[in-house]
Amino acid sequence: MIEHGRVVSSDGTRIAYERAGSGPPLVLVGGGLDDGAENAPLVPLLARRFTVCNYARRGRGGSGDTPPYDVRREIEDLDALIAELGGRAHVYGVSSGGALALEAAAAGSAIDGLAVYEVPYPVSEEATRRWRDYVDALTALLAAGRRAAAVELFMGVAGASEEEIAGAPSSPLWPRVEALAPTLAYDAACLGSGVPRVRLAGIARPTLVVTGGVADPHMGGLQPGYFDDAADAVAACVPGARRQVLAGQSHVPAPGAVADLLAGFFTGSPGAVRARGRKEAM
What we know:
The chain is built from eleven helices and nine strands. It is an alpha/beta fold. The protein has two domains: 3-122 and 193-281, Alpha/Beta hydrolase fold, catalytic domain (Rossmann fold, 3-Layer(aba) Sandwich); 125-187, no CATH class. Helix 2 (71-84) packs across helix 3 and helix 3 (96-107) packs across helix 8. The protein is globular and about 45 Å long. The two termini are 31 Å apart.
């Protein structure tokens, strides 16, 4: 059974979540333009082994928002959820949600184990230049209230084709996606200007850094090397981090493959990653 609830963060913002299962607590952190729906299929699978909590980050879905935005406020949201679950938890973060999870671990949140999937930090000089241009353009569009244009800009940076971008507003999901446009700035803040090497070096928790092995046709501008370069850089910074390629998976991986991987890593079962400091395919 899935339970729905809300916690109150330190600044008074109410954060909506769903919880299911029993066992070690595990919090799922979503990425860009996501209100918790992307991780929802993981909940019943992980609930077999964990007390799993999937939530809508601030400004998304049923969660509130309190300006001005600060990454520290999102860390406090995660801390409030962990406190609700008993004071400590494992954390799995996807895409920009992985960047938030890494920042929380570096800041000392009560995280027992951490896994992140395809965090899109820019690493190369060209990628960093493109990222800065994107953030500048995004800031201007959101300041002008041009939410649709902001989403289209994001899609273009991610590598969507002109045809896909032109057709997106006709999708029945478009109003929901457009409403999330302001949170693109939140994701950009979590990612900063690149891999925060000094902060990540202070993480003292078991950490798994994962990428998929298949390019996503809707994110051609960021695959295959973009996510791999970022993951390699993160794994090189976090002491003892484990690096793995989840074979056959794209930027939105199959829930079953992810659930098996997380169960193995967080419980130390035979399916867990064994190598430290090098890639393994699974």
